[in-house]
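User: Predict the structure for this protein chain, please.
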Amino acid sequence: MSSSTNMSSTEKNLHNDDSSYRITEAAVQDSVGQMSEDGTQNEDVNIPDLICRLNLSNFYQHKLTTADELSISRTSFQIEKLQTQKEPLKEEDLAFLYLHKLLTLDYRAKYITINSTGVRSDIEETFHMTEDLNDFLNEHDYNNSNNDNDNILIHPMDVQMAVFHCADSFLRQNMVTKLSSCQYALPLLVPSPTSTDIELPLWTFRQIKKTWKSVGGLSTSLPVCQIKAPMVFFCRLGSVSTSKSQLLNSVINPKHNTFFHRDSPGSSKNHLFMEGLVEIAWYCPAGNNDDIFKECIAFCNLHGDAVEHKEKVDYMTEQATVNIVLMQNLKPDEKGKELLLKLHCSSKPLICVISDLKKGPLKMGNKNSIKIGLKHRNQAELHKELISVISNCLQKCNSAPTFSLEASSELAKSYRFRVDEDSQECQAGKTGALEVIKLLKGGDISRIKAKFLPCQGKLWQEWSRKNKEQYRLYGDVEQTKSKIQEHMKSIRNQQRRTSLDLMKAVCKNFTFKQNSKKMYFVKWLGVHLDLLFLEKLSEVTQQYYKQLSDLQLLKQKREITDEFRKKEEELERLSEKVDAVTFGLEHIVREMGQIYEAWAETPDRMTADVSAFPAVAADLLISGHPLELMDGDAAHVPLTWIQSVLDKVTERLGDQRVFVLSVLGLQSSGKSTMLNAMFGLQFAVSAGRCTRGAFMQLIRVKEEVKDQLKFDYLLVVDTEGLQSLQLVGKQSGLTHDNELATFVTGLADLTLINIKGENPAEMKNIIQIVVQAFLRMKKVKLTPSCMFVHQNVADISAGEKNMEGRRQLHKLLDEMTHLAATQEVCNAEFFTDVIKFNIQTDVHYFAQLWEGNPPMAPPNPRYSENIENLKQAILKAAAGKKCLKLSELKVRIKDLWTAVLNENFVFSFKNCLEIAAYRRLEVMYGNWTWELRKELLLIENKLHNWVENGKVVAIDPKLIHEELSSTFCDVKNKTEIFFTEDKDAEILSQWKVRTEKRIKEIHHNLIEVTAKKLTELIKMKAARKTLDDKKTQYENELFNKSKDLASGLKSEVMNETSLRTEFNSMWGKWLSDLRAEMPPIIDVSVEQEVMNILSSYFESHNIYSNRGSAHYKRMYKRREYCEYVTLKKHLVVISYILDIKDNDSIRELVQETVREAEEIIRTKPVDKTGYSDAYTQEIVNCVKKRVAEFKAEKFTLKNEFTVDLSLYVCDIAVRRFTDLHKVFRDANDPVIYLENKKGEFFSIFKKQCEGATATAVFADFVCNKLKPSILQSVYDKTAIDAAEEMRTNYTAFNGNRSNLEKHILQDLAEAESFQLFITYIEDPKNYLSDFIEAKFKQQMLEGRNPRILEILKNAVKMKHSSVSTAIQKATQETKQNKDVHKWLERFSQELKDDKFTLKDLKGAYYQEITDIDFLHKMTNKALQCIINETTSCFENISSVRMNVFRQRPEDILIKQLCGCWVQCPFCAAICTNTIEGHDGKHSVHFHRPEGVTGWKWYKTDNLAVDICTSLVASNAKIVLPDKRFVPYRTYWKAGPEYACWNITPDTSEQAYWKWFVCRFQRDLEKYYEKTFKGRGQIPEAWRSITRNNAIESLNY
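Assistant: Here is the predicted structure, written as structure tokens:
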């Protein structure tokens, strides 16, 4: 292309080096429009308009943040569509698509353009043109065509710079870092789009590091700001037909367009933001002979005409080592000559490259000036010549000053260029970082870490080792465990003595209100830490790798020589040195974590400085920095620290749902690189060294896609490589890999399995580890998913090869599954039996990362495509998946890591989220069953009265079912809502069917029991019908006789004494007639009757002799039962002493039998029917049946045992039946019954004599008939209300059984009574009943104003209201006909649920009553008297008659709160599941030292102090009765009674029972006649546990 040789700046050819227009200063300053170079208005588009076109207006200026772009947004889902769609891109898509691709390392980001339809329409138009050749060759139409397509297109570099101008400093830095990774030139001098300001964005370079290697030398890696290298500056004079940028690319990297040029895809003649931009790139040699240059060199490129950017040219040439000027010809204008003259006169080499000059000998002018012609040149030859010239010039300038970005920033200020790092916030962050660095300086670099971060070194590693030992106990288990814990406490004490100066200096910089200041500080701290340790780290690392290479060579000889051992020792020493000089922000945060964990063990002494550490780490995690999850050096998870940090994250963000994505793979397989490219993250990328850690980073999900994804954050967990070089061949390496794989697969919703290449051996190694981890997850009911990623696959486009690869992978997965299933004792043949997996969609093949050979190779765009496809697959898999909340994730981390520490992960895994959900289910189950029980109690009371009233003569369970149906439906609805709408519905679903079934069973059982009780009542009612009718008859006769007597005495004036004399005379005569008619009930000697029954079952002399010796009275609490057993014949043993387990089994038989007998005794209605021999017979039969069912392997029970046990329970029956029979006799002997009524009848008689109307007297009579019913109703309602109030308000009763157990233990500790403890240990069921009764008494019956009185009074008020309503309704409906009989009928109908009927008034005369209103008035008045009298009975607790309760409130509570009663086979602790017959295995939180129940060491008298939860983590063994030994670690193999328990290792202090053993040591030794000596020695540390410690430990 030709060009005029003499043109003014306004007449320049349009074809400059990038085929671009520039913006005039006036247009830039005014932001009105763009001027063409000839001075005419080009188009009416101002800069903000371009920003709007790119949809960036909301972010201009510097408002686009890293968080905005790295969040998962709608763009994340649209990329795939945008990549594959056939329709043109929209302008508003360009900027975000560019940024997305750039951050995923796709260098084609710069080539994104709007696909114009212009070309297509032009082609279509040609089909309609003339076929005339002359027309076809006509140039006029072509030149004058109206195609303005170029004016519409947005230049790709304008997109980049528009985003750059809108980005904040941190996103700019990220952008430039990614541009550098893509091997693109970086903005060095950036003109402002709205002013004449020029900016040097030094801050954007701070994260970039460059690595190079000289031929035969060692590699060098430096931050670019610290690189001091020669700099070659390129510029052009005027308009040139040759592309300067393209020429420069051929020099730096012929295979990649480092600088964007006119022939790059998407380039156009228009651009807005490129004019005056200076870009920089570094050439980095690889250490090969074919390197273009042998050293690192910086190349700078000025866009635009150099004469119009004098300041920039001066600035650049001042620092340049070699200046290169590109010109069209040798006739520059005056300004051009002036610039050339200046460069020519400089001491620095000048290379003039002339477009119109033909090739000739290199023209060397004065002072190293060279001319190179381009015209008609072979490009390869030209490039070679240019490279050679530059190399020669650089060699000549070897001693010249080198270029440094750091130094150039100071020079920039003298040119009045703005340096971005001069901002106030940036400087504040830098100052803070330097203050921290100042503390570190001044000593040996290799000792800084040990000095300032002492907690995380040997101390933390030793603590971690000891913590793991707690799960692998040996010898005297509790002694060993106690020593380990004391050692751990000692380490924490040392950590607490650590100076906080460094941490305070760091944390001080997190008090800034502006988040940007905090982030500047973090970045600056990283920069300066790198600078401080860079040199030493580089030196030691190179020594390490050299030593590693030497060791690998020696390994190949397969001989373990002294030299080999020395090399190994030296390598280990160098490894420690590398650790010592590796110092980053993550180590500071790790130190914070260790200090925090140390102080967390003494929270009352923790300072405000330390308590702020989790908030600092939380801020870092939220702002996008990785947080160490598993310590890289100790291979341990600091649980307390991680949980506290996540608490703070939850506090700041809310309890958000998170989808966890983890990655597993071999060392240096590209895991971190993949995650960084996929999500734009900042995980450290390095090869060779394995720090054995895991880091997590949060990615926000924008609101626009939350409905689609169903979670709020993506949590990415990056892990260090499996089979690291440092661990190969060591058993610890395999253990570590298994721990890591198990931990991260359990934590993740989706795990990426990263495999480098398709090496079968490597694949087999990692797949075996991974499959085993997934198999473990299946066994503990966790359901993660996985995807496989094959990296560095040579030909990923070959479909057939991929299909074969998938087939081989599937085969290998199945093989490894079968192998792992055998090891894990699990049935699984195929990988799909273990995890949901699709071989077609869950396997991804990746191209190799680099397009060529590093360090100058850009990332392979195919790799970026693969990354994007994988990301889309992950998001699709994640969409809608049920995820954990942050609070739940915290719990899951603890559960997993605690289980990982155990040798048996599956059996040790305790899913606390499941446990918490199940505990809530237990509480809800208690509420549901209480609703049923409460309603049925009300129904039972009502039906009881119906039976008493004679309204029901037979009980059909259907009747009760119908009465209860409404409540049952409500309960079923509440159950359904709970299981479907609860936040843990997915977890709870596994118990739904069983719970619903159990509620149906409860419903059925309650109905059945109630129907049975009411049927018994009907039978009793029938049996005493004659007696009841007689009582009613006699009452009515008495009423009539007293009424007749009063009528005869009305005319006489008599005082009360005279009245009583007359009444007594009548009463005596009437009773005399009654006695003659009906003799009194004969009394029964219950005791003698019971003895007679026993004599009929057993030999009489045995019964009476055993009873006389009173030996049987100790049956219940005996320690030894040897005298009651006979050894089985096949055992030839002279003597046999029962072991603890045998005695416990017999004692349990006694206790269960006594409880069953007591239940029989309690249910017998002796007070209603009188004593019957059948009752005693039933009790004795129960004893005989229980004893007959008892089975023991080595002995049988003697007959004396059955005799004594029968005597024991019959003693209880005699006492109870004797008292109840007296009640029956008093209630049913008419004479005694009526004697008790004498006062009531005298009161009626007296009123009649005093002139009371017949209506008033009758009203009194009716209300007196009602009085017992009212009283009973009050007591019945009070029983239910008091039980409900206790259940609701008393904390021990308002939760599940675990909660109740905790309060029982707390109560025992506060009472500090050994006898109470022993009662609880040996008979927990009875103790629970006693506890409930005691607490009921304490809460309801004691105090100045016992609560039961208030409840009773409230019940009286409610009863008063209901009876008053009945009176009112009866009056309203009968007042017209004035029929008293009708009134009574209506009244009794309203009180149908009370024990009152019209039959109760049969024989009473009331026919003379005609005034219904007056009857209404008198009845209300009489009722008020009855109510007042009843209320007055409840003024003090002594007047409360507990025997009136049909069901006592405490008995209702006992039935409601009883759950599972199965005891731990080792320590006899009771399963605390609320639901009797529950799903799953039995469990209890507070296991006990075995000696608490009398267990001793084998063949000794030493009581055992070991706790079950410690033993299952030890090498101790169980000695079974048949002398078999079973390891505690596999205790479930000891038999069914063991296998039904879930006992997991517990490393907590478990202070409660340890305190009990120490507090009552002598009592226990005396009680069991054994000692805590030898192997039963109590650890000394236990003795420091106080009662308060014990009680506090219950609040787990």
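The CA atoms of residues 1485 and 1596 lie 9 Å apart.
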